[in-house]
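To: structure subgroup
Subject: Chain for Friday's discussion

All,

I'm putting the inputs and outputs inline so they're searchable in the archive.
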Amino acid sequence: MTTIKPKTLRLPTPGCYADPDRSGPEPDDVFDGMTEHLFYSLGKLAPTATRHDLYVALSYAVRDRLMTRYLAGIEALRAAPTRVVSYLSAEFLIGPQLGNNLLMLGIQDAAAEALRRFGIDDINLILDVEEEPGLGNGGLGRLAACFLESLASLEIPATGYGIRYEFGIFDQLIRDGWQVEITDKWLKGGWPWELPQPDQACFVGFGGRTESYQDEHGQYRVRWVPAEHAIGIPHDVPVLGYRVNTCNRLRLWRADATESFDFYAFNIGDYYGAVEEKVGSETLSKVLYPNDGTAEGRRLRLKQQHFFVSCSLQDMIRSLEARGLPIAEFPDHWAVQLNDTHPAIAVAELMRLLIDDKHLEWEDAWAITTRSLSYTNHTLLPEALEKWGLELFGSLLPRHLELIFEINRRFLQQVRIRYPGNEAVLQRVSIIDEEGGKSVRMAHLATVASHHVNGVAALHSELVKTQLFPEFADLWPEKFTNVTNGVTPRRWVALANPQLSGLLDEVIGDRWVQDLSQLRQLENYVDDTSFLERWGATKLAVKNQLSHYIHRHTGVLVDPASLFDVQVKRIHEYKRQHLNALQVIAQYLRIKNGEGDHLAPRTVIFGGKAAPGYYMAKLIIRFINGIAETINADPDMEGRLRVIFLADYNVKLGERVYPASDLSEQISTAGKEASGTGNMKFAMNGALTIGTLDGANVEIREQVGADNFFLFGKTAEEIMALHDAGYRPWELISAMPELTEVLRLVEQGHFSNGDGELFRPLLQNLTGRDPFFVLADFNDYLRAQAEVNTAWADRRRWNRMSLLNSARSGFFSSDRSIAEYAERIWRAEPFPVTIKCEMEDEPG
């Protein structure tokens, strides 16, 4: 008979948050944590546990280790308040959390060993179980996620605020070449990384009316009487920094109804009416970016934005009150960053809370608002600068519209002093757009109220000042600044590319993970033939992995030794995936015509989602898939050319694609891309860029060197001049015989099973208006692609260029971006968290 020895419990002393049984870094500790969670949290025994069970158990065991730091940080801030960054964003594309948190804690090997004891020899089998959190769509949301991680890694206290979308944007299927959207049920298996906090719920109003009254002091006041309410339930996601104790949070709001069930309606047989309020309220947090092509879709979008912004601001004010801090000190404790125009309603909502709820005078409330808010502009595209019709806005947010009218009145008085008698300037800068159907310009509102306005790349920031907001820049030149975007090297190199990460650790040490400028040491090996061969072998290893993935998911065999030419990003005309597609056809024709001997064997990889209501973007996806079907079935292309469209592109897939890419396609129309962040991920992983002088491409080329960048295309100034001169794309075609042949082949239905009508709207768009100057850049794009072919033929030269792209990519770490925000915009300081505990033994 086995005698079980009583376990000795080691209890933390009062004020200590480190439970040794739930925070140990060794394989035994992780294994014990998984075993306990299987039993107590999941009700499972190890022999019957599925891979999903093991994923959840390991996630809970890892989350236990986060809690030590998370709670210690909350207590430290309560004891010694400091300025906290509040990052308001409609998207946080955070990606899978398990692998990232294992990296942050430094317990990847311990977790792998613990899993081996459960019969899992490859930790990736468990990591792959995790669903992609449906909290974002593209670069905006991924940037927000990188920024939150860097804030924690730099030990700057911060809270990200957003919406807990139940269904995300959509999962993308490809059927008969077309994008098909299906519901993204990412929460169907539960999500172990969130901590619901129902006791910290907030009420949010919509609609109704305003009324005036006199308070007990005889002061004139306005109160808003909403017609409906929703409740915001916060769900906190811990965000741990790399090998530090700082664990910030992402607070996501889930919408609930004030009354979930109407018993009277139910009892009289109105079963839908009994839950109508619950269904209507919960719609607020159902789906990311409802289609704004309908009036109801636009209404829901505005309600979503007000919902999460109001909850977040109420939460910040409540945190001050809980610590006994006066509302006048709000700007000293919160630096509120508006990530694009989606949260710009914060201007009016903060004013409402300060004036109507806290009874501050206008000047005091405005001073607090303008000292607290700063605004990041992410686009120059007019259609992406949100405007809300006054009828819609007033029906949903009547008090906010009154406040915006008053903000605008006071602002225009300043403008009249600066530009006396100049009505044209007043019309251009007014927060209220008077043309056509009157509307609220949210970018103008954010610009007027923010103490800083920044673009996200040097070129973009200059265009913000000179083209988008020139009058604002004249009024307040000190407001406008640039902070070039960045991405975290932890996820995008250390986690996504362990082959490259291991090589870097070996030759330059592991400090690069926290200080990406350390990559400069790689330049010492730029002429080392042996090391360049190892560099190329590392790339080939990850290309092999992606090749297997492509075969499993598409059935197409690709050669990992071919040039992996990649364009993965949101599908949009200005990003010009159709320009890339046209040059693929040109290569195809050269090979068919016997002129392809000088062409590098290529695997051209596309990926990205089109907005459901964006027909032209969806047609571009169909165009790419039509080209892929034709080329991949042609025996003449064997070993020469393959085209792949990777469906449902997301963070998980990006972690496979960026490390395996040789050529990064960054071919947007100059002056249209604010920054780009995919271009940075590619460069960090040693991909060479072919691109225009647009967004952060300009700075990437400056950093890596013009000799290591394939430049083509007209500049932003040349594009503007071409536009002003009356661009006529049809006049270019006759002078470009290769383009003529490409377009004729498309027109004849060669890539659409003989259907000459399928791609006619695309051809008419290109040859008629060509709004993004695809044809204007086509020939120069082919020239640059010819340079790519020449460089690829000399593999030593290519590896050298690849190494230099990685070595010189340190500037594009999000740590650098966050350090600039913290110093110049937020005035936020690092706040290291110390965890010191002495354990007391108590026999159990």
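Points worth raising on Friday:
DSSP finds 35 helices and 25 strands in the chain.
The CA atoms of residues 2 and 8 lie 18 Å apart.

D.
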